[in-house]
Fold each of these.
Amino acid sequence: MDEKLQGAIFELDGALLDTIDGVTQALNLLLAEEGLAETSVSAVRAIIGQGPNEELKLALPNLPEGEAAKKLFSYNLHYSSVMMQKTKPYEGIVDLLRQLNAKQIPIAVVTTKKNEYAQMLINYFYPDIFFYSVIGAQDGVPGMPDPTSAKFALQMMHIKTGEALFAASSPIGAQTGKSAGILTAGTAWGYSSSKELKAAGAGIILKKPLDALKYF
């Protein structure tokens, strides 16, 4: 690529932060309340990044529709109690974000995670990194893979579609970037395989975080 890109959007789970242990523990706390067997990290790996509703379906696949809101509330309470202790940045991510800030490249986050939790996690783990926006799941905003959140992040960064990179860690993220018309890069360090990410719309694969720097 001859022209350098002017901004970057990141997914949260599997791109910026390793959150799988927290999601798994929260689901297992919910399952314990129901008197059911625990789920595993490998099972959660298959659906993480799809949002709390899908995570809940993994734990309680036969849940009556009328009970979903109540159980989702309980799951969110459990997740909020463990998310800080059970989350960590990926190796190389802090360095990448600091270098992008130093180069005055605007960055943003678009995620299926509940907006409140996304904001808290970013503020806690990256207190010295400037993000133009952090957009999580919230009422009134279409969820991923709808491109609305990604396009809004572009507006906040004051850059055009063709000037950005979308770092996608999940098939839903890759679909989001592609549907928004953004160059989409799969993050090989996350939870999905390169094959899955390419099939969902990733045009390139980043083997490690600092590989992204060559595009800026």
Note: Strands lie at 7-10, 17-18, 88-89, 107-114, 133-137, 164-168, 183-187, 204-206.
Amino acid sequence: MNRIEKVNEIFDKFYKLFYETEDLALKKRIKCLTHTELHIIEAISEETINMNELSERLGITMGTATVAITKLREKGFIDRARSDSDRRKVYVSLSKKGLEALKHHSNYHKNIMSTITEGISDKDLKHFTEVFEDILSKLSEKIEFFKSRPIIEFPVGVTVNILEIKGTPIVQDYFSKNGIEYNSILKIIDIEKESKIILEREDKTILKINILDAKNLVAVKVER
């Protein structure tokens, strides 16, 4: 087993054991919550945030976040209210019951970390945190790399893979007629401010797309 395989094995074992102990603690104190629901409570914390912010923090769709929040509200852990200035915006915060669950979860993490690091020297812990912070930094960069976003948010010169085409059937038909479909590979040649985005297809043909239409193209970066 080489070093990379060993690191992968260690991470895998830690992840499974950590969540197994968390699951046992959860069933002991807050039996009606799932892991996912607990992490939603953790994401909201002591703030009042709107649903867009929550879905971004969790990396899930608005639809998935809405379903989860509805269940948590029914269980009494979440308070939900519409904005007075914009009725389309929904804000969520933790109820008294939700804050108690958050406190319990936070205490669990502090206690388990204190227990599993007991007996390890400060020098070794310092070295571990430095290495792990470096790993987290690189992982964060990878998450940004794989994160999908509208094509107009990528810089010029980047090659992207189209993951989703939004908009009306007319807009989708327009893209299809221009050879832009799911999994199309496109290079961003130029972005004319508030006007057009210039794209290059794999066959080297050039396309000029209106910026407003281009917002319907959701993509991820491709390594080239």
Note: The first strand starts at residue 49 and ends at 50.
